[in-house]
Fold:
Amino acid sequence: MEALLENSQSTLETVQASVELVRKGGGQSKDIAGWVKHLSAQMSEMAESLHAVLSANDDIATIAKQVNILAINAKIEAARAGDAGRGFAVVAEAINELSGKTALSAEQISANVSNLSKKVEKLNLETNKIEKTAETVLCDSQDADDAMGRIAQATEKSAAKTQHIMSEAEKVRDAVENFLPSFEQIGATVRETAEGVHFVTQKSDRLIDLSEGIVQRTVALGGRSADQPFIDRVQQDAKNISALFSDAINRGEIDEQDLFHREYTPIPNTNPQQVLAPFTTLTDRILPPILEEALKNDANVIFCVAIDDHGYLPTHNAKFSKPQGADPVWNTANCRNRVIFNDRVGLKSGQSKAPFLLQVYRRDMGGGEFVLMKDLSAPIFVNGKHWGGLRMGYRADG
Structure:
């Protein structure tokens, strides 16, 4: 703002100086225009005078011719008079010679005056053109003067506003400096809160892992719980899927390399983003009977899906495998196949190699609806290699 104010003041000074130059030039243009008009008037008077001189000279030439004729007549009469007319003949001869010279001089004067008159007329035309140009320059000078005046006024207003902004900016700066300690305190508090949230999240994750481990160890030691039927079901179905995958490889329906391929091809114009893998066609063909039977077996089961170790879910239950529409919220709730679920629960389900993994979480059903669910998973191995896991979601309060 200080630099802007300095530039505004400098511009104002320049504009004011330019205004003075334009006004000075305008005054000089007025003087030139006036002089040109006066010159034009003088040239017109001179042209009239030359015309008068030419007319008078014509009269002189006429008189010279008449005198010449009289002199010739006088010489004739003197010759007739004989000796008595000799003196008169000498005078007549002198007059005749003078009239001849006068006529020649009058002719030369007429030629010179005519030539001068043409030049004066040409100069008079040029003077008239210059006079019109001078009037145009005078009008342009006045317009430029007015424009520069407006620029000067605008620049003055800009400088004044800049000065006002400077004043307000100083107030803001003072206020910021006064509030800066509070801002720093708020920032420190936010950082402490973030660190606390991160610490609590880590503690919660460890507590969840510990509780999940307790459930798994309890079952491994022979303990029974309400989840046992689901555990038995998901483990058996995972073994069945492992066998189906192995049989497909043995029959040449898919290469083992394609089954473990982890580069996905996005499906255009999908939201949420859906992708395809080389094994998607295979899972669409062989998995639905197992997945749909799990839902029929118990009304509390919400879904049953197989995911790879990256969280990719190629084939879902029929009720969650509808074609996508234009509404992303509706798609999130109804079009959940071919989506990568790489959240904490999804990745743990796909990457766990334990006999089973039981997790409890709030499932996003789309449209702001969440359901508290238990996520039970068992690993899927193909020819001794870990492919992913079978996930079964059922109501936590069922």
The chain has a mean pLDDT of 81. The radius of gyration is 58 Å. The longest strand covers residues 369-382.
